[in-house]
Specification:
It is a single chain. By secondary structure, the chain is an alpha+beta fold. The protein has 2 domains: 1-58, no CATH class; 59-105, no CATH class. The protein has 5 helices and 3 strands; from the N terminus they run H-H-H-E-E-E-H-H. The chain has a 3-stranded antiparallel sheet, with no helix packed on it. Strand 2 and strand 3 form a beta hairpin. The protein starts with a helix and ends in a 16-residue tail after the last helix.
């Protein structure tokens, strides 16, 4: 077993965002307040993780543009690469397009009939 696999609980991995290093634990120990620790403990209790996923690092209060803000008010620039860096969180044009699309869509159960739903 590689030393990397040993560090992540004997899970051999070739990709993912797993980070269970001592540096992560040290950062959390000196940075997180009691409220954040409680939120993370609750998340850990109810969130089902995959074998190569990392528990939450911090508790997020809001996100806007490229910024993420934690529950204590610290702001972080998001470099994760999950496509948010292209348009930012809460981009007004995207929010408007989503609202228009959702407002014009019909969402219903497959078990019901609604006359006119499939009119072409």
């Amino acid at each position: 077993m590689s030393s990397a696999a040993a560090r992540v609980g004997a899970v051999a991995q070739s990709e993912s965002d797993t980070n269970l290093t001592s540096r992560r634990a040290e950062w959390q120990a000196r940075t997180l307040d009691d409220r954040t620790r409680k939120l993370l403990a609750q998340d850990e209790r109810y969130f089902l993780r995959q074998s190569v996923s990392t528990p939450c690092l911090n508790a997020i209060a809001k996100a806007e543009g490229i910024w993420i803000e934690d529950v204590t008010g610290r702001r972080y620039m998001d470099f994760h690469g999950n496509n948010v860096h292209h348009i930012g969180y809460g981009h007004p044009r995207l929010k408007r397009a989503l609202a228009e699309t959702l407002g014009s869509s019909c969402s219903r159960s497959r078990c019901s009939r609604w006359r006119g739903t499939w009119r072409v």
